[in-house]
Amino acid sequence: MVYSPLAVKQAARALAAGGVIAHPTESVWGLACDPFDVRAVERLLRLKSRPLEKGLILVSGDERDFGALLDNLSAAQLQQLHATWPGPVTWLVPHFGRVPPWVHGAHHSVALRCTDHPFTAALTRAYGGAIVSTSANPAGCQPARHKYQVLRYFGDALDFVGGGATGGRRAPSEIRDLISGGVVRP
């Protein structure tokens, strides 16, 4: 999959400036922002009409960006993560108060995914850490699978839209609970 290094730089600059961007992921387009910028997260949530309580996913191309969130996990739990990362599996992991409430919402866990999408992985490297990434669609609408759908949903309300094509998966990322072992979203 080909992407423009210039687009990666533009997207990373937009994130650093407090922007909300759209980028391709393994299956759908995502909206992203800096997880520690409350204004950016609030703006993203308004664009999606998504309640804060639902929480958001943190995505990176390098699991080391999740740092302390993985410190308290057992060897068996880490092995579960490593069996699916990088890839389209999102894990619910206890956050132990190590992420802001506007990221974890009303939950005791936070959703983490180590992506294998080339653009998104390069973006997190250029940005220097994990980003919030949630499907690019207003609540109740189908997730955008193409750039034109993102533009139809959000027009010029975003600070950057680009990065190539999605990874072509038909289903959104699977979500699994690391503690219970259950599949939350197949």
UniProtKB/TrEMBL annotation:
Localization per Swiss-Prot or TrEMBL: Cytoplasm
Database matches in Gene3D superfamilies: DHBP synthase
Matches recorded under InterPro entries: DHBP_synth_RibB-like_a/b_dom (IPR017945), Sua5-like_dom (IPR006070), TC-AMP_synthase (IPR023535), TC-AMP_synthase_SUA5 (IPR050156)
Molecular function terms from GO: L-threonylcarbamoyladenylate synthase
Domain of life: Bacteria
Record key words, sorted: ATP-binding, Cytoplasm, Nucleotide-binding, Nucleotidyltransferase, Transferase, tRNA processing
Presence of keyword Transcription regulation: no
Residue ranges constituting the YrdC-like domain according to the UniProt record: 5-186
Catalysed reactions listed for this entry: L-threonine + hydrogencarbonate + ATP = L-threonylcarbamoyladenylate + diphosphate + H2O
SUPFAM superfamilies, per the entry: YrdC/RibB
Protein function: Required for the formation of a threonylcarbamoyl group on adenosine at position 37 (t(6)A37) in tRNAs that read codons beginning with adenine. Catalyzes the conversion of L-threonine, HCO(3)(-)/CO(2) and ATP to give threonylcarbamoyl-AMP (TC-AMP) as the acyladenylate intermediate, with the release of diphosphate.
Entry protein name: Threonylcarbamoyl-AMP synthase
Species the sequence originates in: Microbulbifer halophilus
Gene name of the encoded protein: tsaC
